[in-house]
Specification:
3-stranded antiparallel β-sheet, 3 strands
């Protein structure tokens, strides 16, 4: 019965990161941006210490400039640009002005 300790630690780190992200979103909704930023910083620090890949929620769900969770209508604006082949999701942070563009190929 070999328990893989490394895998267990990575799993615990990912669970903690998800909890911290949820808490950060709650703090943004309460307009407490400093505490939300601190939660995200702790989550990013935990990921680097555990040497794991960032989950998708942290790759696309936070502003890479000011480390605030991107919530449409509260901390970011979302626009769709594109043509028949590609749609580009453009998100702009309302606090710092950082712009994220995510290409999305259209389905057939």
């Amino acid at each position: 019965m070999g328990i893989n300790v490394r895998k267990l630690l990575k799993d615990l780190a990912l669970q903690r990161v998800r909890i911290l992200y949820i808490q950060a979103v709650k703090e943004v909704k309460r307009s407490n941006f400093d505490r939300a930023r601190r939660y995200i910083d702790i989550a990013l620090n935990l990921i680097s210490k555990a040497n794991i890949r960032k989950p998708l929620i942290l790759r696309r769900g936070i502003c890479k400039n000011c480390h605030i969770p991107l919530i449409p209508g509260i901390t970011c604006t979302v626009r769709l640009r594109g043509n028949r082949k590609f749609v580009i999701v453009v998100r702009r942070c309302l606090l710092c002005g950082w712009v994220s563009r995510i290409p999305c190929p259209r389905r057939k």
